[in-house]
Write a structure and sequence with these properties.
single chain; 416 residues; alpha+beta; conserved putative lor/sdh protein from methanococcus maripaludis s2 fold; OB fold (Dihydrolipoamide Acetyltransferase, E2P); 6-stranded antiparallel beta barrel; 4-stranded antiparallel beta sheet; 10 helices; 35% helix; rod-shaped
Length: 416
């Protein structure tokens, strides 16, 4: 049995060997693997090993030139794609306006919010110089008064004592003056005169006038302690925040008078605005339907800590009383550049893909390409620019439509 199995195994090995020896692919493959290198192959290997560095550098340079040339072609292709060609019908529908950019002096205006105020240099604030009680008022809010017109009658204990002292000092001085210094003596003469002058000065300091002092010496003088405050200027009553019977402390405001023929306008400019305004510079002030011209009076050199703005004070004539303190106003400063500049409307400016400011230049009729520029001064509705030459045709309106057309032309759905 064992002999039979051994015989079958040997027969199978012999059959497998015979079939492998007859396969042509196996024969060729075995032959090629064992085939020695030919003389030509050996020469090529020797040539590569002994190739000079210069030859290697030439080959590398050639490859680099090929890559650079390909990059330049890609860049030129991108530049060609970063443009837009529009038909006249499209430009009309989109509202695209093209203008020739030339250097010229620019007239522009600067807006600032403002407020109309009373002229602090010609206004007058009426207040008692000593603690008093209001007895009667003689004017009301909005009244126009003349200089010397009675405003309010007050009563004060301190005023009563001062008036009594004056009434005592006045007849004494009259007697001494009639007798003369030689008769009464120099000391009494000087004392009587000094006492009267001190009483008179006290009453004037309390707000009385020369006419009030004369009435104190007459037989028909009013009750002690009463006195009347009068208008020091011609003007309108702007405030009268008090009531009859109210006690008013010394220095507290009773009535504010202002001459409305000339008012102040305070304009508030940005703190970082580099601008110098000379006295007398003409400015337009608008409030409601009233348009008037004003002139620069003063320019503050400090910044308001609350609004963080710089105040410019203007003087405006108001003979017809069309303006009133407390009104808000729009202030327009008008300027002109000293030298010609290149300036475009804000609507001509667009941000490029890299964030830089660009304008669209019409290279050929209906063909537009973006050009990067640098921004300069803001000139009202215009902006000074650099980076383009005078005479260039610039899109001044409809730049957004041109940008969208360029972006649409450069869009690749496959991100290639």
């Amino acid at each position: 049995m064992n002999k039979i199995l051994i015989a079958i195994f040997i027969a199978g090995l012999a059959a497998t060997y015979a079939s492998h020896a007859q396969s042509p692919d196996a024969t060729e493959h075995t032959h090629e693997e064992s085939k020695p290198a030919t003389a030509q192959n050996k020469q090529d290997e020797i040539h590569d090993e002994h190739k000079s560095d210069a030859e290697h550098e030439v080959e590398e340079h050639g490859d680099k030139e090929h890559v650079d040339h390909a990059g330049e072609e890609d860049e030129n292709a991108n530049e060609e794609s970063a443009s837009a060609a529009l038909k006249p019908e499209q430009m009309t529908l989109a509202g695209i306006r093209v203008e020739v950019l030339n250097a010229r002096p620019v007239d522009y205006q600067l807006y600032a919010p403002g407020e109309i105020l009373s002229n602090g240099y010609t206004s007058y604030r009426v207040s008692p110089r000593v603690a008093s009680v209001v007895l009667r008022r003689h004017v009301a809010l909005g009244d126009h008064v003349k200089q010397g017109q009675p405003l309010v009658t007050l009563f004060s204990e301190s005023m009563a004592q001062a008036q009594a002292d004056y009434r005592t000092a006045w007849p004494e001085w009259q007697r001494v003056q009639e007798l003369g210094g030689k008769t009464v003596g120099e000391q009494r003469y000087i004392a009587a005169k000094t006492t009267l002058e001190a009483s008179e000065a006290t009453l004037l300091a309390y707000g009385l006038t020369k006419s009030d002092l004369k009435s104190l010496t007459s037989q028909q003088s009013r009750a002690l302690g009463e006195y009347t405050l009068r208008a020091e200027i011609d003007g309108a009553v702007l405030t009268d925040d008090f009531e009859q019977g109210q006690r008013i402390e010394a220095g507290a405001p009773l009535i504010a008078l202002a001459d409305e023929k000339q008012l102040w306008v305070e304009a508030h400019l940005p703190a970082n605005l580099s601008l110098t305004l000379g006295a007398g510079t003409q400015v337009e002030v608008v409030t409601g339907d009233v348009h008037v011209m004003a002139s620069v009076s003063q320019e503050a050199h400090t910044i308001d800590p609350v609004t963080r703005t710089r105040t410019v004070r203007l003087l405006v004539n108001n003979p017809e009383h069309r303006l009133h303190p407390g009104q808000f106003a729009e202030v327009f400063f008008r300027f002109r550049t000293k030298k010609p500049v290149l300036a475009v409307p804000e609507t001509a400016l667009m941000r490029g893909a890299d964030g830089d400011w660009t304008v669209f230049v019409e290279d050929h009729p209906g063909e537009f390409m973006p050009v990067e520029i640098e921004l300069g001064r803001a000139l009202g509705q215009l902006r000074e620019i650099t980076g383009v030459k005078p005479g260039t045709r610039i899109v001044t309106e409809g730049a957004f439509f041109v940008a969208s057309q360029i972006a649409k032309g450069g869009f690749d759905p496959h991100n290639h």
